[in-house]
Amino acid sequence: MPLKFTTEALSHTEQRLYLYLESAGKNVFTISELKESELGLSTEYLYVLLGRLQKKGWITSVGKGVYLRLPASSAVDGKVYLEDPFEVALKLFPKNAYLAFLSALKVHNLSEYEPFTIFVATKNKSETLKLLEQYEVKAIKFGRRFTGYERKDGYIVSTVAKTFFDCFYHPQYAGGYSEVLKSLHSCENLGWKEFRSYLERFGLSSLCQKIGYMLSLLQNVGYTVPEDLMDYLKSRVRTKTRLDFQIRKGGKLVKEWLVIDNIGDRKLLEWWYHG
Length: 275
Hints:
By secondary structure, this protein is α+β, with helices and mostly antiparallel strands. It folds into three domains: 12-77, "Winged helix" DNA-binding domain. Chain C. Domain 1 (Arc Repressor Mutant, subunit A); 89-202, no CATH class; 204-275, no CATH class. 41% of the residues lie in helices and 18% in strands. A hairpin with a 2-residue loop joins strand 2 and strand 3. Mean pLDDT is 90; it is low at 1-6.
Protein backbone atom coordinates (compact mmCIF):
# COMPACT_ATOMS: atom_id res chain seq x y z
CA MET A 1 0.00 0.00 0.00
CA PRO A 2 1.52 3.41 -0.92
CA LEU A 3 2.07 5.94 1.85
CA LYS A 4 -0.55 8.62 2.18
CA PHE A 5 1.09 11.98 2.93
CA THR A 6 -1.07 14.24 5.05
CA THR A 7 1.54 17.00 5.17
CA GLU A 8 2.13 19.74 2.61
CA ALA A 9 5.42 20.85 1.14
CA LEU A 10 7.34 23.52 3.04
CA SER A 11 8.70 26.82 1.84
CA HIS A 12 12.40 27.54 2.25
CA THR A 13 11.92 29.44 5.54
CA GLU A 14 9.50 26.86 6.87
CA GLN A 15 12.05 24.14 6.10
CA ARG A 16 14.72 26.17 7.87
CA LEU A 17 12.59 26.42 11.00
CA TYR A 18 11.58 22.76 10.96
CA LEU A 19 15.16 21.57 10.35
CA TYR A 20 16.39 23.81 13.17
CA LEU A 21 13.91 22.15 15.54
CA GLU A 22 14.98 18.72 14.33
CA SER A 23 18.72 19.36 14.57
CA ALA A 24 18.33 20.91 18.04
CA GLY A 25 16.31 17.91 19.21
CA LYS A 26 13.36 20.13 20.09
CA ASN A 27 10.40 17.79 19.98
CA VAL A 28 8.67 20.10 22.47
CA PHE A 29 9.28 23.83 22.25
CA THR A 30 7.86 27.24 23.08
CA ILE A 31 7.68 30.47 21.16
CA SER A 32 9.96 32.02 23.79
CA GLU A 33 12.69 29.48 23.01
CA LEU A 34 12.50 30.28 19.31
CA LYS A 35 12.74 34.01 19.98
CA GLU A 36 16.01 33.38 21.85
CA SER A 37 17.46 31.08 19.15
CA GLU A 38 19.94 31.90 16.39
CA LEU A 39 17.16 31.90 13.79
CA GLY A 40 16.96 35.68 13.98
CA LEU A 41 13.26 35.82 13.15
CA SER A 42 10.85 38.37 14.60
CA THR A 43 8.12 37.28 16.99
CA GLU A 44 5.43 38.20 14.49
CA TYR A 45 7.03 36.18 11.71
CA LEU A 46 7.58 33.20 14.03
CA TYR A 47 3.86 33.12 14.76
CA VAL A 48 3.14 33.21 11.03
CA LEU A 49 5.56 30.34 10.35
CA LEU A 50 4.24 28.25 13.23
CA GLY A 51 0.71 28.76 11.99
CA ARG A 52 1.75 27.56 8.54
CA LEU A 53 3.63 24.55 9.89
CA GLN A 54 0.63 23.58 12.00
CA LYS A 55 -1.77 23.98 9.09
CA LYS A 56 0.48 21.82 6.92
CA GLY A 57 0.68 19.09 9.56
CA TRP A 58 4.31 19.37 10.67
CA ILE A 59 3.72 20.68 14.21
CA THR A 60 0.78 20.88 16.60
CA SER A 61 -0.08 23.24 19.43
CA VAL A 62 -0.91 21.92 22.89
CA GLY A 63 -1.73 25.35 24.32
CA LYS A 64 -0.07 28.15 26.26
CA GLY A 65 2.50 28.74 23.52
CA VAL A 66 3.78 25.14 23.66
CA TYR A 67 4.18 23.16 20.44
CA LEU A 68 5.09 19.62 19.43
CA ARG A 69 7.29 18.98 16.44
CA LEU A 70 5.98 15.91 14.66
CA PRO A 71 8.72 13.56 13.46
CA ALA A 72 8.55 12.94 9.73
CA SER A 73 7.45 9.33 10.33
CA SER A 74 4.46 10.57 12.32
CA ALA A 75 3.68 13.47 10.02
CA VAL A 76 3.53 11.10 7.02
CA ASP A 77 0.47 9.25 8.33
CA GLY A 78 -1.05 12.16 10.25
CA LYS A 79 -0.45 10.78 13.73
CA VAL A 80 0.35 13.12 16.60
CA TYR A 81 3.12 11.50 18.62
CA LEU A 82 3.76 12.67 22.18
CA GLU A 83 7.23 11.45 23.06
CA ASP A 84 7.55 12.97 26.55
CA PRO A 85 4.33 14.09 28.29
CA PHE A 86 6.29 15.09 31.42
CA GLU A 87 8.38 17.57 29.44
CA VAL A 88 5.26 19.00 27.82
CA ALA A 89 3.52 19.37 31.19
CA LEU A 90 6.42 21.34 32.66
CA LYS A 91 6.56 23.61 29.62
CA LEU A 92 2.85 24.34 30.04
CA PHE A 93 3.70 25.62 33.54
CA PRO A 94 7.16 27.15 33.01
CA LYS A 95 7.35 29.05 36.30
CA ASN A 96 7.04 27.67 39.82
CA ALA A 97 6.06 24.11 38.93
CA TYR A 98 7.40 20.61 39.41
CA LEU A 99 6.26 17.05 38.77
CA ALA A 100 4.50 15.57 41.80
CA PHE A 101 2.49 12.62 43.10
CA LEU A 102 2.25 9.65 40.70
CA SER A 103 4.28 11.47 38.09
CA ALA A 104 7.11 12.00 40.58
CA LEU A 105 6.94 8.36 41.68
CA LYS A 106 7.34 7.39 38.04
CA VAL A 107 10.38 9.66 37.57
CA HIS A 108 11.96 8.16 40.70
CA ASN A 109 11.26 4.62 39.39
CA LEU A 110 8.99 3.90 42.34
CA SER A 111 5.77 3.17 40.47
CA GLU A 112 4.85 0.87 37.60
CA TYR A 113 1.92 3.04 36.55
CA GLU A 114 1.85 4.32 32.97
CA PRO A 115 0.05 7.54 33.81
CA PHE A 116 -2.26 9.33 31.41
CA THR A 117 -2.70 12.10 33.97
CA ILE A 118 0.43 14.13 34.62
CA PHE A 119 0.49 15.77 38.04
CA VAL A 120 2.22 19.11 38.48
CA ALA A 121 2.64 21.03 41.73
CA THR A 122 2.29 24.78 41.29
CA LYS A 123 2.69 27.62 43.73
CA ASN A 124 -0.44 29.62 43.05
CA LYS A 125 -2.84 27.95 40.62
CA SER A 126 -4.89 24.78 40.21
CA GLU A 127 -5.88 23.89 36.67
CA THR A 128 -6.62 20.86 34.50
CA LEU A 129 -5.62 20.89 30.83
CA LYS A 130 -6.34 18.35 28.12
CA LEU A 131 -3.19 17.24 26.33
CA LEU A 132 -4.08 15.85 22.92
CA GLU A 133 -6.51 12.92 23.11
CA GLN A 134 -4.72 10.63 25.54
CA TYR A 135 -3.47 12.81 28.37
CA GLU A 136 -4.44 15.48 30.82
CA VAL A 137 -2.26 17.70 32.96
CA LYS A 138 -3.56 18.31 36.48
CA ALA A 139 -1.90 21.23 38.24
CA ILE A 140 -2.47 21.43 42.00
CA LYS A 141 -1.88 24.60 43.99
CA PHE A 142 0.55 23.96 46.86
CA GLY A 143 0.90 27.42 48.37
CA ARG A 144 3.42 27.34 51.20
CA ARG A 145 3.95 23.59 50.65
CA PHE A 146 5.61 24.43 47.34
CA THR A 147 9.05 23.22 48.35
CA GLY A 148 11.25 20.13 48.26
CA TYR A 149 12.08 19.68 44.59
CA GLU A 150 15.16 18.92 42.51
CA ARG A 151 16.32 18.34 38.95
CA LYS A 152 16.41 14.66 37.99
CA ASP A 153 16.79 13.14 34.52
CA GLY A 154 16.06 16.52 32.97
CA TYR A 155 12.86 17.16 34.96
CA ILE A 156 12.00 19.43 37.86
CA VAL A 157 10.45 16.95 40.29
CA SER A 158 9.74 16.65 43.99
CA THR A 159 12.45 14.89 46.00
CA VAL A 160 11.73 11.33 47.08
CA ALA A 161 10.95 12.45 50.64
CA LYS A 162 8.67 15.28 49.50
CA THR A 163 6.98 12.98 46.99
CA PHE A 164 5.92 10.58 49.71
CA PHE A 165 4.82 13.37 52.02
CA ASP A 166 2.67 14.80 49.23
CA CYS A 167 1.27 11.37 48.38
CA PHE A 168 0.22 10.78 52.00
CA TYR A 169 -1.23 14.31 52.07
CA HIS A 170 -3.26 13.79 48.87
CA PRO A 171 -3.47 10.02 48.26
CA GLN A 172 -6.13 10.54 45.58
CA TYR A 173 -3.40 11.85 43.28
CA ALA A 174 -1.14 8.87 43.95
CA GLY A 175 -3.41 5.89 43.28
CA GLY A 176 -4.60 5.64 46.89
CA TYR A 177 -2.88 4.61 50.11
CA SER A 178 -2.23 1.06 48.93
CA GLU A 179 -0.24 2.27 45.92
CA VAL A 180 1.66 4.74 48.12
CA LEU A 181 2.64 1.96 50.54
CA LYS A 182 3.64 -0.33 47.67
CA SER A 183 5.91 2.38 46.26
CA LEU A 184 7.34 3.18 49.68
CA HIS A 185 8.11 -0.49 50.33
CA SER A 186 10.25 -0.51 47.17
CA CYS A 187 12.11 2.66 48.19
CA GLU A 188 15.57 2.02 49.59
CA ASN A 189 16.67 5.59 50.23
CA LEU A 190 13.81 7.85 51.24
CA GLY A 191 15.59 10.48 53.31
CA TRP A 192 13.71 10.18 56.59
CA LYS A 193 15.15 13.35 58.12
CA GLU A 194 13.80 15.40 55.25
CA PHE A 195 10.48 13.54 55.41
CA ARG A 196 10.14 14.38 59.10
CA SER A 197 10.85 18.06 58.40
CA TYR A 198 7.73 18.21 56.21
CA LEU A 199 5.66 16.54 58.92
CA GLU A 200 6.84 19.15 61.42
CA ARG A 201 6.16 22.05 59.07
CA PHE A 202 2.95 21.00 57.33
CA GLY A 203 1.52 17.88 58.98
CA LEU A 204 -1.61 18.07 61.11
CA SER A 205 -1.78 15.61 63.99
CA SER A 206 -4.42 13.59 62.14
CA LEU A 207 -2.08 13.17 59.19
CA CYS A 208 0.79 12.13 61.46
CA GLN A 209 -1.44 9.55 63.13
CA LYS A 210 -2.47 8.04 59.81
CA ILE A 211 1.09 7.96 58.50
CA GLY A 212 2.29 6.39 61.76
CA TYR A 213 -0.33 3.67 61.51
CA MET A 214 0.48 2.87 57.88
CA LEU A 215 4.21 2.84 58.54
CA SER A 216 3.59 0.37 61.36
CA LEU A 217 1.87 -1.90 58.82
CA LEU A 218 4.98 -1.73 56.66
CA GLN A 219 7.11 -2.61 59.66
CA ASN A 220 4.97 -5.72 60.10
CA VAL A 221 6.03 -6.91 56.63
CA GLY A 222 9.72 -6.27 57.19
CA TYR A 223 10.18 -2.65 56.12
CA THR A 224 12.56 -0.63 58.28
CA VAL A 225 11.40 2.73 59.63
CA PRO A 226 13.61 4.78 61.99
CA GLU A 227 12.43 4.41 65.59
CA ASP A 228 12.90 8.11 66.30
CA LEU A 229 10.43 8.90 63.51
CA MET A 230 7.89 6.44 64.90
CA ASP A 231 8.35 7.98 68.35
CA TYR A 232 7.74 11.43 66.90
CA LEU A 233 4.60 10.28 65.12
CA LYS A 234 3.30 8.68 68.34
CA SER A 235 3.85 11.99 70.13
CA ARG A 236 1.45 13.60 67.65
CA VAL A 237 -1.47 11.31 68.52
CA ARG A 238 -4.39 13.44 69.71
CA THR A 239 -7.95 12.38 68.92
CA LYS A 240 -9.66 9.73 66.82
CA THR A 241 -9.43 10.19 63.07
CA ARG A 242 -10.68 8.20 60.10
CA LEU A 243 -8.12 6.83 57.71
CA ASP A 244 -10.34 7.67 54.74
CA PHE A 245 -12.68 10.60 55.34
CA GLN A 246 -14.74 9.71 52.27
CA ILE A 247 -15.86 6.48 53.91
CA ARG A 248 -18.26 7.64 56.59
CA LYS A 249 -19.20 4.35 58.25
CA GLY A 250 -17.47 1.28 59.64
CA GLY A 251 -13.85 0.65 60.38
CA LYS A 252 -11.73 -0.71 63.21
CA LEU A 253 -10.19 1.53 65.85
CA VAL A 254 -6.43 1.08 66.17
CA LYS A 255 -5.91 2.23 69.76
CA GLU A 256 -2.17 2.86 69.51
CA TRP A 257 -2.74 5.49 66.81
CA LEU A 258 -6.38 6.42 67.44
CA VAL A 259 -6.96 5.75 63.76
CA ILE A 260 -10.22 4.25 62.57
CA ASP A 261 -9.05 1.98 59.76
CA ASN A 262 -12.04 2.02 57.44
CA ILE A 263 -10.03 0.64 54.52
CA GLY A 264 -8.59 -2.51 56.11
CA ASP A 265 -5.00 -3.61 56.54
CA ARG A 266 -5.44 -6.47 54.06
CA LYS A 267 -6.52 -4.02 51.37
CA LEU A 268 -3.76 -1.55 52.22
CA LEU A 269 -1.22 -4.34 51.82
CA GLU A 270 -2.94 -6.30 49.07
CA TRP A 271 0.13 -5.90 46.85
CA TRP A 272 2.12 -7.72 49.56
CA TYR A 273 -0.33 -10.54 50.16
CA HIS A 274 -1.01 -11.16 46.48
CA GLY A 275 2.54 -10.54 45.30
